[in-house]
Amino acid sequence: MCPRPLFAESSLAEVTTRSIAERIAKDDAIVELRELVAESEFEVEVLPSSNGRDELLSLQISTHSDIGAIVYHTGGIIFEGGWLRVWGSGHPRVPHQIVATNEQINSPGILIAHDAIGGVFCWNHQPRTIHYFAPDTMEWEDLEIGYSAWLRAFLNGSYQGFYQDAQFEGWRERIHELSPEQVWSAYPPLFISSDQRDYRPIPCRESWNLSFGA
Known about the structure:
Oligomer: single chain
Helix content: 25-40%
Order of helices and strands: HHEHHEEHEEEEHHEEH
Number of strands: 9
Distance between the termini: 10 Å
Mean pLDDT: 89
């Protein structure tokens, strides 16, 4: 289970007396984030929030932070039809909630997003940077940036460079094969050099369990 104090802004006694209204910041990060989405060169879809109030209160943060804004205002964000799904408060197309899902998964931090080939992004406890579980190395790789820098970099164009060698020929035509609860499993696995691979859908949790014991 991922400890929530990673996000804490105040003591537990203070948190329990603060209302949701006090968590909605005047300088809400969602304003800038929606502008970045609108200007992005990629197909990016922001899904409506389903349980933002409870998720925000559980995280003990405000919407001044990017992760607070994403959780409160969105159900999640989808890049390019489902290649990358950024978790929010939950939606039928991104059913993984930041709080509820992380309470059921064993990981080195807070899982925040996953991609179509089984890769997972995690906001690590120590150091407090985004780590990526890479299917081609089967290791957690430190991206050496925080949540806001990671999300904004992807919206600004880093997404393309990050995945340019991973998006296999024909993936765009096949992305509809994946349900929101599925990722592709490659054979031979991505950590084995091969000129040809087969990709089949498997449940997210099965992939994560095989990869890092989620």
